[in-house]
Amino acid sequence: MYFIPSMEYSWKSTFDWVCGGVDPKFAGNGGPECVGFLTPGQRLLETTIILAISILEIVVCWPRLKVPAHVINAEHNRQPDSPGKRFMLVLLSVTFGVELGYKFATKTVIYVLNPCHVISAVQIYLLAAPPSKTTLVVFRMHMTALSGPLLAILLPVLNTRLLPCEPEMYWVQHILIYFVVPPYLMSLGGAYSTESMGNFWWCIFTTGVLFIYHFIPLQGLGLITQVNLNNVICPAPSDPFYHRWYRLLALIHQHLLLPVHLKTYTWIVKKLLPQCPEVCNGDVAKKDT
Q: Given this model, what pLDDT does residue 7 score?
């Protein structure tokens, strides 16, 4: 006689390594109470409104996104990577690898989908890939998302990090992806150049992409697994906008925060960086309009 496991048992045992270690007893982690924070009707209404706005932003901004001609031309005149770039790549890759190890050890691999880990993976790509039109597009979009690591630094969540050195790795990762790697890439110029201070099309476009990422894959997986991925299922206890309509409030304050942070961050880094030499990243730096 053979034992035929139920579908629920099979699903839980198969994906235990993905989210089996997420403890719903910690406020804001997830669980039935978190999923029930919003009614299905409100969740559907908010998702429809936010996705409609995000798609509109993408459609309006797409034809206005310009890649400077000197970056396209530079694809045919690539220079070998500098030792500094390779060092940054190794440093960030090791840090991200340790973070992945912690996630597997604690059965919380699903948290790799949170934006700060995605930004780490994006920066590894930027450090590893040669300068090109694609790297410029990815770089400019990721610059808009850097307000996420800043909030993680200002409002750290460390109560679930219980393994040795796990809290310390949190700080190492976020310091690298916010204070170290972006300024270093900006210092290279070329494909790692930002748009002009008066250009907000890249920021608005990326904001739409970020909200779609939160409300389709993150919300979908969060509802299936009952894991509160980046607080899209229920608000964090420390959320200053803790309210039944916290997601629509987030739609408002994030549309204000992202452009203000992007332009402020870019302005400060450019003021602190030394003037880029004539040849940057295998290409002559030119003004981007």
A: 52
